[in-house]
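Why should sequence recovery work at all? Because a backbone constrains its sequence more than one might expect. Tight turns favour small or flexible residues, buried strands favour hydrophobic ones, and helices have their own preferences. The token representation captures these environments compactly. In the example below, the structure is given first.
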């Protein structure tokens, strides 16, 4: 397979005005008839109409109503080329496909006996021959015929007709009034129940909302429906963007490669982002559902109405829509402290998974330059870093300026396929700003590092800040240029108050937070009237996706953690303090005999201070005091030693639990959530602080805490607590860990959502001396009835979680973890290359591990690379990892 380059883009020679599709649904032999109107473009380079096709059986072609004859068309691998299309021409193509065999879950496939489609990014070509590229926008009319036991036949747009055919089968006809790219096509057929609701839109129109699920899941869609209504209202209020359809549908399915899909008017969701009640979903799941429902809905404008010219522009819709989703979730929370929790969470995702990507072999700009398989580029760089880049426009221009720019972009490009440059220009022009340098965020990969230097002149009362940016260089690429980086800062005085900020040349101070624009390699700013010893707070609210290399002392970090008026930076200072301590523990432990190591008194003091600060919300305290993940700690070290990281973390948690017992017990007592379960932020925050406290006590092997964990499991009226209890028990290696896990195995009724939770929990079992290695258990669990061999959610829950978070249980010096990785990647690649490629990424940062492990990882990668029939998806990941 070939590499595709962004620079090679050329506009299509033919547009498709409309497509009439008809489906005769049969599991192993569905017939698809496609009638397209092809329109040659004035400035075309060729009269050949090039159609894509993958895994199709061609039955017949008619051109302009006539049966085709030899020489009128040619077949090439993956292409059907129809010659001599010099005028507007109708072409009818009949193909056969096999949805039952489609385990890739791309194109038309079956989930149990229901038919589902997934067309982004290149699935439509697995349904019929078509120019499957996002800059071809056509009007769709769809006829679905299915056996009479298929009651619900859905597609995009408006239902124009439905009924029974003479032979007793059912049919439905749908028409989508909005031209769309093929990747937004959707079809669903099956037997569902629908939750329905009507909403009145801002212009007085009424729209019908429907959430379709299998009958067994009736009653689990209430929260998703509320989320959808909130999302509709939010987009109206924040951006003046209304729902443009009379009907908006969501379908939930258990078999899905990704989170969800924004097909026009017919969103298809992984059921874990739709279905919820207190027994199958945790607080985090509820929050995710609100976010993903919002995300897909917001795509209706940013993705569907304005789409992408080519797949290199993916971040144009994804970065923007993630940003809109983040703002929506934050607005649903309201108060400052909850908003800070959301920001901390989003930044953790970025630092935990995007920073390593940007520092590793798969690094790419948010607008990639080339790919082998576009499906490998649905990455945290394109999504989350892309969202940070979009956020920077808002940081630069304010909410009003951002809204003006977004609406200008939509006005200019409505109904068309746009580029990242188009977005940038709309933003720049509607805010009268030159953003030519800002463009580099789209073309340069790597996380910028900024060194920070400060100087206080006590006599002159000036404070000078010098920032120096350093961007990652890539062999064979031009040297990186300085980026335009918005840096939000504040300065604290020695009592912890913000100093009013007055730059040299200004007549009077203006505010206590300032946005500095760093747009050169090195830049300095001098502030006046700084009469007490100042302490800098930098990158407030995480104003840019960069790393600040600051050289704070422990005391300074503890001071910021206590006083910074910016809640994000308070948390950040505390995190830095924790990371410093973890480093110290690792150093001590590696020299052995350091089992007595203790966190410093000042650390414990800062910790307890936050824990007991009732002016901070429980959610915020829980978020700040949670130990950084082992992966995040690894990311911050030069050499990764998983066993040492684990040992240090466990020991620190044990010590904290021992020392702060009283405060933790107090938090457990005071953060109960009696009465009916409510998934709102306030109650969720209390549960989080309670579980956090219980967890530290469990690490201290506190007898009372163990009893509390057991009781919590038994008496909980919700899954957050129940699952939290098992999680604590297994992670803290409590004697009851395995017992609770087996109880949950039996008691959690067979339900895909719960099965996957249970599988993921099992991966957290710690291997104890003389006991069966966890890796053995994971391998054995691939035969467990809760595990579905071909189901992506199963694979991610068990294998994905283990490879990503398994720590020393996965990174074993005997290589058994990597052997399971090899076997899994090769097994999954045979039927679902997209999912296999995601699993494959677990080893890409092998170079950073201690030599014994990195050697074994290298061998595992090499072994996979020697497999002859590797999919292009997995091949691309492995090749990058090895070069
Ligand atoms: N736009 C959607 C992407 C998606 C996808 C991509 C590749 C393979 C399968 C997929 N399913 C959905 C999801 C989104 O960002 O909203
Ligand atoms: Zn998206």
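From this structural description, the recovered sequence reads:
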């Amino acid at each position: 397979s070939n590499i595709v380059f962004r620079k090679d883009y050329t506009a299509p020679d033919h547009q498709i005005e409309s497509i009439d599709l008809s489906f005769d649904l049969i599991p192993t032999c569905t017939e698809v008839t496609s009638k397209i109107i092809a329109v040659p473009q004035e400035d075309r380079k060729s009269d050949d109409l090039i159609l894509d096709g993958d895994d199709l059986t061609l039955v017949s072609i008619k051109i302009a109503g006539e049966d085709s004859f030899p020489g009128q068309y040619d077949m090439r691998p993956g292409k059907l080329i129809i010659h001599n299309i010099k005028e507007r021409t109708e072409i009818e193509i009949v193909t056969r496909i096999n949805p039952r065999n489609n385990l890739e879950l791309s194109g038309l496939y079956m989930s149990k006996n229901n038919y589902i489609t997934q067309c982004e990014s290149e699935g439509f070509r697995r349904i019929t021959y078509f120019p499957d590229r996002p800059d071809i926008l056509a009007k769709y009319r769809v006829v679905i015929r299915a056996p009479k036991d298929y009651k619900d036949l859905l597609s995009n747009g408006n239902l124009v007709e439905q009924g029974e055919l003479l032979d007793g089968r059912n049919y439905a006809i749908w028409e989508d009034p909005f031209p769309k790219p093929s990747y937004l096509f959707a079809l669903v057929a099956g037997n569902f129940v629908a939750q329905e609701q009507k909403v009145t839109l801002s212009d007085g129109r009424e729209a019908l909302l429907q959430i379709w699920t299998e009958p067994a899941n009736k009653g689990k869609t209430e929260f998703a429906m509320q989320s959808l209504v909130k999302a509709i209202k939010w987009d109206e209020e924040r951006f003046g963007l209304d729902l443009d359809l009379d009907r908006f549908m969501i379908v939930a399915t258990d078999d899905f490669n990704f989170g969800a899909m924004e097909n026009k008017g017919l969103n298809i969701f992984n059921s874990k982002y739709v279905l919820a009640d207190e027994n199958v979903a945790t607080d985090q799941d509820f929050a995710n559902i609100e976010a993903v429902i919002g995300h897909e809905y917001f795509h209706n404008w940013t993705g569907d109405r304005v789409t992408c010219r080519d797949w290199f522009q993916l971040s144009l819709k994804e970065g923007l829509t993630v940003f809109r989703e983040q703002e929506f979730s934050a607005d649903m929370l309201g108060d400052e402290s909850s908003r800070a929790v959301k920001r901390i969470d989003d930044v953790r995702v970025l630092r935990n998974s995007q920073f390593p990507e940007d520092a590793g072999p798969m690094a790419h700009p948010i607008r990639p330059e080339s790919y082998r398989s576009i499906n490998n580029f649905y990455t945290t760089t394109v999504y989350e870093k892309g969202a940070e880049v979009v956020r920077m426009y808002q940081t630069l221009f304010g909410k009003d300026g951002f809204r003006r720019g977004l609406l200008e972009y939509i006005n200019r490009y409505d109904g068309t396929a746009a580029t990242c440059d188009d977005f940038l220009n709309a933003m720049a022009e509607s805010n009268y700003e030159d953003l030519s340098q800002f463009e580099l965020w789209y073309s340069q990969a790597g996380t910028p590092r900024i060194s920070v230097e400060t100087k206080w002149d006590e006599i002159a009362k000036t404070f000078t800040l010098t920032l120096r940016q350093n961007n990652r260089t890539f062999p064979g690429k031009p040297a990186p240029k300085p980026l335009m980086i918005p840096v939000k800062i504040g300065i604290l005085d020695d009592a912890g108050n913000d100093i009013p900020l007055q730059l040299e040349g200004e007549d009077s101070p203006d505010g206590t937070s300032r946005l500095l624009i760093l747009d050169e390699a090195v830049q300095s700013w001098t502030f006046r009237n700084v009469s007490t010893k100042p302490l800098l707070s930098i990158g407030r609210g995480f104003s840019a996706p960069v790393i600040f290399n600051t050289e704070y002392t422990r005391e300074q970090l503890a001071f910021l953690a206590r006083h910074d008026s910016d809640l994000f930076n308070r948390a950040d200072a505390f995190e830095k303090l924790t990371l410093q301590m973890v480093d110290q523990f690792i150093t001590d432990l590696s020299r052995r005999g350091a089992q007595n190591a203790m966190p410093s008194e000042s650390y414990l003091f800062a910790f307890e201070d936050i824990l007991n600060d009732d002016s901070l919300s429980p959610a915020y305290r829980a978020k700040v005091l949670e130990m950084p993940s082992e992966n995040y700690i690894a990311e911050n070290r030069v050499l990764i030693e998983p066993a040492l990281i684990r040992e240090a973390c466990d020991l620190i948690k044990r010590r904290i639990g021992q020392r702060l017992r009283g405060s933790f017990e107090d938090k457990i007592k005071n953060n109960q959530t009696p009465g009916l379960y409510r998934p709102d932020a306030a109650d969720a925050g209390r549960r989080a602080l309670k579980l956090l406290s219980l967890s530290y006590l469990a690490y201290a092997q506190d007898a009372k805490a163990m009893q509390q964990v057991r009781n919590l499991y038994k008496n909980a009226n919700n899954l957050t607590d129940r699952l939290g209890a098992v999680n604590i028990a297994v992670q803290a290696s409590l004697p009851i860990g395995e017992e609770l896990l087996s109880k949950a195995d039996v008691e959690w009724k067979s339900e895909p959502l719960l099965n996957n939770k249970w599988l993921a929990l099992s991966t957290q079992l710690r291997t104890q001396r003389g006991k069966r290695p966890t890796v053995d258990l994971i391998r054995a669990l691939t035969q467990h009835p809760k595990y579905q061999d071909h189901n992506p959610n199963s694979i991610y829950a068990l294998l994905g979680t283990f490879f990503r978070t398994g720590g020393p249980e996965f990174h074993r010096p005997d290589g058994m973890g990597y052997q399971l990785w090899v076997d899994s990647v090769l097994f999954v690649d045979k039927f679902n290359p997209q999912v296999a490629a995601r699993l494959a990424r677990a080893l890409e940062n092998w170079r950073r591990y201690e030599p014994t492990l990195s050697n074994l990882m290298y061998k595992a990668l090499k072994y996979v690379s020697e497999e002859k029939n590797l999919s292009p998806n997995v091949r691309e990941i492995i090749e990058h990892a090895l070069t």
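A few observations help interpret the result. The CA atoms of residues 159 and 437 lie 48 Å apart.
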